[in-house]
Write a structure and sequence with these properties.
2 copies of one chain form a homodimer. Chain A has about 290 residues and is α/β, with parallel strands linked by helices. Chain A contains 9 helices and 12 strands. Chain A has helices at about 15-30, 45-55, 80-90, 100-115, 130-140, 170-185, 200-210, 225-235, 270-285; strands at about 5, 35-40, 55-60, 70-75, 95, 120, 145, 160-165, 190, 215-220, 240-245, 260-265. In chain A, strands 1-12-10-11 form a 4-stranded parallel beta sheet, with helices on both faces. In chain A, α4 (about 100-115) runs parallel beside α5. The longest helix of chain A has 15 residues, at about 15-30. The N and C termini of chain A lie close together (about 10 Å). The interface between A and B is medium-sized, with 19 and 20 residues.
Chain lengths: ~290, ~290
């Protein structure tokens, strides 16, 4: 008999689950013919985006579609306040599904700016969350830089008082190094640790699960950096690790002789896909 | 002809030079028969301590000697405020030669405590400077710990708001690691970088000088951690590196065929010893 162990923190993080719930609640009250727009895909999972699309959540493709009384869902990444004002000026109704942990980053940069700190946002320059946060920094008249690589730390040279925050999904090791480095160069550094523990929880689960199972299945977008990282960690511990997006990618030969199978999923993978994968594994091996 | 290059920042740091000057000024005005006490050796250099002793600076050995109108020099390390009050209560006259950079550490822990931070002092638990600083922390009702090794970071677990300062002579690499680690665990960290650059300046000089000379001479107490570190750096770059306390330790054979000799000294080494060493090297090779 094969045992299937699903990781404690597999799948949706708090912010993503919340955004989906907000969108679904709005879709329930939608007239049959209507549409709600999301600016960019609501989450990084094509299957879930498709499911929501069928219920009436459209991807905003043309600004002209933003008419009075249109409903727009702001996804968990958040948007710059300038963009929010622009939407409001068009008479659009906004459903704000910005993750509360992302709102905390917005609040942190504003607080640090008001306290006179030069702000360092450790994150990816082109990530929508970072672009949103920079909007808040600009809005309050603050100054700062995004640090994505060690090279970028140069931009902080000569700043005496530096305030540091992170993109919520920032890698902890890199954040630690940036903070340490800047603390040596500056007179005063204030760090507000805005890293969300969803990423590290999912990674810790893999460290616990991968060594005690025969096969590890990691579910999530092939283009999702966080899912790929889960797969890399798993593979380094257990060579019988496989990264899939959907259940039809599962192969019977992966499970030969396996007594225990571990399953986990990136933060954008909906529960229903995890359940389908678990069911498929069971079917293949029955 | 042999060339002797003395490192730019060889010998006394600002705080030590200032303490010696304060003591010497006081000694000038001393009546022939009188004494001024220092609590602990004024600096970590036996030759300089002996020189000052001959001028009338005695090492305080018994508390009973602290009578009214006795003069006491507080060395650059500083003392806890409780000890200062105790001295004043005995009617002792205090000459405060606490290094201004050390005073800045005292001010920093008080400031951080008042702002509600749990204080982390990165330093050596038994170092007089650390003991003095902890006195200021206690005085203002603050809470905190000394972090001397990575093990000690455990004492910070669960603290949400942490303020971090360093012993002035703290190793930068360790400070950086401690700050990074704590920033990951706490919600908010405020770092006031109180590391004095005297130590790193002396080390950088060795990195510059050791590779371009045939022989390196490092002067300073054999029991001085900072001088030993200068020697280790030098030795790793240039095998013909030698650590001495006094000129009579120099050996003719060290300089065989040498065209360029580099000389540096730890922060407790007086100029007159550096000069004697340079003179001796010249004599040996003339």
């Amino acid at each position: 008999m094969m045992e299937i162990l699903v990781a404690e923190h597999a799948g949706f993080c708090f912010g993503v689950r919340r955004a989906i719930n907000i969108a679904e609640d709005a879709l329930k009250n939608l007239e049959k013919a209507g549409s709600i727009y999301s600016i960019g895909p609501l989450i990084h999972n094509p299957q879930e985006v498709k499911r929501l699309q069928e219920k009436g959540l459209a991807l905003l493709e043309r600004e002209e579609d933003l008419k009075e009384n249109t409903t727009v869902v702001v996804r968990s990444h958040g948007i710059p306040p300038q963009r929010e004002r622009e939407l409001l000026s068009k008479g659009v109704r906004i459903l704000d599904a910005t993750c509360p942990f992302v709102k905390a980053v917005h609040d942190a940069v504003v607080k640090l700016s008001k306290e006179g700190y030069f702000v360092v946002l450790v994150g990816e320059k082109n990530h929508p969350e970072v672009i949103g946060t920079l909007g808040y920094l600009q809005e309050c008249g603050g100054k700062g830089v995004v640090v994505e690589s060690k090279e970028d730390i140069k931009g902080v040279l000569g700043k005496e008082r530096v305030g540091i925050v992170a993109q919520t999904t920032q890698n902890e090791q890199f954040f630690k190094e940036v903070v340490g480095e800047i603390a040596l160069w500056s007179k005063e550094v204030k760090v507000i640790n805005t890293i969300c523990n969803a990423t590290s929880e999912r990674q810790e689960d893999v460290y616990k699960l991968a060594p005690v199972v025969d096969v590890m299945i990691i579910i999530g977008g092939k283009n999702s950096g966080n899912t790929r990282r889960l797969y890399e960690i798993s593979k380094s511990i257990n060579p019988r690790s496989y990264h899939i997006e959907t259940p039809d990618e599962l192969k019977r030969e992966w499970f030969e002789g396996a007594k225990k199978v571990g399953v986990t999923a990136g933060a954008s993978t909906p529960d229903w896909i995890i359940e389908e994968v678990v069911d498929s594994i069971r079917r293949i091996n029955s």
